[in-house]
Design a protein that fits this description.
single chain; alpha+beta; three-stranded mixed β-sheet; 6 strands
């Protein structure tokens, strides 16, 4: 009996650790680590059905949210446009109403001018003329506070955009040709706009026609 048989009888058969190393294979059973069962090239990992369903629902909700956000932005933009248009309309209506009121007040100013001219022409009493002139000046100052200004017309060149030619008067002076020689009704501006043109008499050389 050799030494090997004697050791087996004395100590028993050798264990696996005594017999030598044993190959151990570790298998990753996670779904993300599963590859091709046939051992071929590994493709994209297969996801569980419930994960795919959750991703599909998330994509749908994201798309719905984006649509709602787009509708909200459009609604806000339309609201801003409507509000801006309403402001413009209100401002235009206010400006038109104020303009109409000021035009009507100019009729009062015209009457004061006529009364003052009549008092001067008829040689009325000084206290009466001074009273009418004081009221006229106060009224004109009040109009200026609202932005109404009287046009400087007498002696100015005729301007169709600011003057309305009522009649002409003959002149033999070339330097006066085409200039305002008389004012029938005063003209006024309101800010940068013409509130009412001045009705004027234009000086013309005898051979020239009345301006249009």
């Amino acid at each position: 009996m050799d030494d090997r048989h004697r050791e087996e009888q004395r100590f028993g058969p050798p264990t696996q650790s005594q017999a030598g190393p044993v190959d151990v294979k570790v298998v990753d059973r996670r779904w993300s680590a599963r590859g091709d069962a046939g051992g071929g090239a590994a493709g994209p990992p297969n996801k569980p059905t419930y994960v795919e369903e959750l991703e599909r629902r998330l994509a749908e909700k994201t798309e719905q949210l984006q649509a709602i956000q787009a509708q909200h932005r459009q609604a806000v933009q339309e609201f801003d446009e409507i509000r801006a248009r309403m402001r413009r309309d209100v401002a235009r209506d206010v400006a038109l109403g104020r303009r109409q009121m000021l035009v009507e007040l100019l009729d009062v100013m015209d009457n004061l001018d006529r009364a003052l001219t009549a008092a001067r022409d008829t040689g009325g009493s000084d206290p009466l003329r001074q009273g009418v002139e004081m009221v006229r000046n106060q009224f004109l100052a009040r109009l200026e506070e609202f932005g109404v200004r009287r046009l400087q017309t007498m002696g100015e060149p005729f301007d169709p955009a600011r003057h309305e030619a009522v009649s002409t008067i003959a002149t033999d002076r070339p330097d006066q040709d085409g200039r305002v020689a008389g004012v029938i009704r005063e003209g006024y501006t309101f800010g940068d706009e013409l509130l009412r043109p001045a009705a004027v008499v234009v000086a013309r050389l005898a051979s020239e026609p009345m301006p249009s």
